[in-house]
Amino acid sequence: MRITPFAMFAALLLSGCVSDTEKGLCPTAAVLAPTSAMTVFRENAPADPSGELYTVWMTNVKSSCDFDKDDKATDSKLRIMFGAKRSPTAEAASYRIPYFVTVTHGGDRIMTKKMFLADLVFPPGQASVSFEQVVDSTVIKPERGAKLGEYQILTGLQLTRAQLEYNINNNHFAP
């Protein structure tokens, strides 16, 4: 999994990390900064701003959860906010954007990772858009001896190695 090297640095690299909690029993949710933005370049174009087809980023994630006292488990609902931009054009365009939701334990151990696709749609003539995705259920049942506060939900865009290196080398993260 590509995210593993970054999971232990998540506490330092988080952006947009506000969660609703129920008496401290709900896990926090955050966007993992190195994977918060994705730039896609036109075919055969240079990998610099002049070659950009579009850029999409995660701006925030908000969570709410239900706590099951009998199971000592939480079921979180996530609302993930995105923004995107492209060069002005009269043409409409749509893209499928891969993103993930992971549950980490202790900041360095990935417990689960689920992949999702978001639909990015640019109406004709529109150069920027905002949209949201909802993930209805992320269940966390702590391991024996672990506390719910030791778990965190992280979201990010599923990047290629080249896209991740572009972000890191250019400090290209969500605005």
Task: Quickly list its features.
four-stranded antiparallel beta sheet, elongated, mainly beta, 175 residues, five-stranded mixed beta sheet, 7% helix, disordered N terminus, 9 strands
Please tell me about this protein's structure.
This protein has helices at residues 4-7, 161-169, and strands at 14-15, 28-32, 37-41, 52-68, 73-86, 93-105, 109-122, 128-140, 151-157. It has a five-stranded mixed sheet. Strands 3-4-5-8 form a four-stranded antiparallel sheet. The chain is 7% helix and 51% strand. The chain is built from two helices and nine strands. It has 175 residues and is mainly beta. The model is unreliable at 1-22 (pLDDT under 50). A hairpin with a 3-residue loop joins strand 6 (93-105) and strand 7.
Strand order of the largest sheet: 1-2-9-6-7
Low-confidence stretches: 1-22
Strand content: over 45%
- Write down the overall mean pLDDT: 84
Task: List how many beta strands DSSP finds.
Answer: 9
Compute the CA-based radius of gyration.
17 Å
- How helix-rich are the residues, as a percent range? under 10%
Topology as H/E string? HEEEEEEEEEH
Number of helices: 2
Distance between the termini: 25 Å
Instruction: Please give the largest β-sheet.
Output: 5 strands, mixed
User: What sort of overall outline do the alpha carbons produce when their principal axes are compared?
Assistant: elongated
The SS-based structural class is mainly beta
